[in-house]
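Q: Give me the 3D complex with guanosine-5'-triphosphate.
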Amino acid sequence: MTAPAPPALRLVVPTLREAHGVEAFLAALLPVARGLAAEVVLVDDRSEDGTAEVARAAITRLGGGDLARVVVRAGPRGLSASVLEGWAGATAPLLGVMDADLSHPPGLLPRLVDEVRAGADVAIASRYVPGGGVEGWPLRRRVVSRAASLLGRTVVDARDPLSGFFVVRREVIDGVALRPRGWKIALEVLARGRVERVAQVPFVFRDRAWGRSKFGPRAVVDFLAHLARLHADRLRGR
Ligand SMILES: Nc1nc2c(ncn2[C@@H]2O[C@H](COP(=O)(O)OP(=O)(O)OP(=O)(O)O)[C@@H](O)[C@H]2O)c(=O)[nH]1
Ligand SMILES: [Mg+2]
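A: Here is the predicted complex, encoded as structure tokens.
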């Protein structure tokens, strides 16, 4: 028997309390992942609703045991920390991340991978380029997101630097000390990684189809602190 081919992409999906919809998400994602020869790692932050167990059962039911697994984290919860933990030790040349609540269409993944294969260092699924958008968010959330994106653009050259859906060439961050705070891993990768070419692929972000939003004032505070640190490090030449 020949050894299985190494994965082309490691896709990390951070999860917190997604038991209700994670099976629908995996049903949409796994065929796409298989087509891309991707490995999928769900990194769950000890969700109390049984997300990890539901996801494991779904992976088995969907016949995805050879390409997807669930890791349950220890230690303090954190979205960016979960993503870094999921990427750690990857041998695939490409790393990716997306949300588990179907806000990010799995069908867009091949396009992001193609962009990196065609020469981009990072391919971001972007809400804020022509053809992109947001569906189902109240005005308040749209305004906060837009304002945060504009602020993010003061440190990185991308229209949606807070997108949680992107693919990056592994070499871009290999050996780079990433210190993300809170949620915005893309901002950190773009600001500190060896990024020269960014591809921005439009998509329409759909509000979560189930579960309660975890967005709140804490997310805003974390973001502003993260941004301040990136500016300070830049001034100090780090
Ligand atoms: N591991 C881990 N995953 C998280 C954490 N917070 C959120 N997530 C997951 O990260 C992804 C993005 O979080 P969301 O809560 O959907 O963020 P959002 O889309 O900005 O906001 P809402 O959908 O309105 O809640 C989802 O798959 C969540 O389940 C966390 O602290 N740890
Ligand atoms: Mg969401």
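A quick observation: The chain has a mean pLDDT of 94.
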